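Thread: zinc ion complex, take 2
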Amino acid sequence: MYLLHLTNFDHQFPQDQMLQIYGETMAGLGIMVDEQKNISIDSEPRPCKNPRAFCTPICIRDDIRFVIRPTGGQSDYQAFLHESGHAQHYGWASPALPPEFKYTGDYALTETYAFLFNHLISDSNWLASFPGIKNSVEFTRSVMLARLVTVRRYVAKLMYERQLHLGDDLSASAARFADLQTSATCFRTDPSYFLFDLDDSFYSASYLRAWAFEVSLREYLKTRFGSHWWASRRTGDFLKEIWETGDRYSADEMAAQIGIGPIRFDPLIDEFVAALK
Ligand SMILES: [Zn+2]
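Output below.
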């Protein structure tokens, strides 16, 4: 966890600028966050508040809660940007959608929008424009390495969870969990976490599909709206148009509708190879 937090870069991501950077980034897309009465941000630093950011769509689209306890640092920025993608997705969903297309969709779709904003952290142009980091080569390589560890961790989680749920015999599960995680991440993993480090409903598969879809979606936005896609109102209009459909479509259906489907893993692999070679 210490490695993944990349704490040596934390001074470049001050706590007190996070909300302002969020507002400015969204303004580039033509989204004025101060006027979004349906998305409320709770950034109060209450003593027992969990520092992990989260977004809860209580009532789509009228009441979207976005909860953070800004502590600063790059991992906090990433979490904040990630949750802002969820908040905007739910915040622009059409109120006319039936509940099943608001609350019970394919999680890979909302995670794709979350990663789209999350991954601004590895966009050197965005880093230069907003946190004002002019030379981000070392930082973006580090972020991509940490992201690769995370993606490989989730591949191992999915492989493990598929086997775990096949039967009732848990005798080999702890060792299998540790072996899969250790070989995927190159960090020795404690077998005792084998029933703790789990996500319901194969959420790990939703994350993996979202990581893959997000790379293709981002490339599509760059091709259509330019490398500074996040500073284009036309991008904002396009995103609002697809967000309007809420969870009407699965991630694969949305990729096909945009014209970049089916979801493929090659672009994700190629991105890691290019960033880390
Ligand atoms: Zn998420």
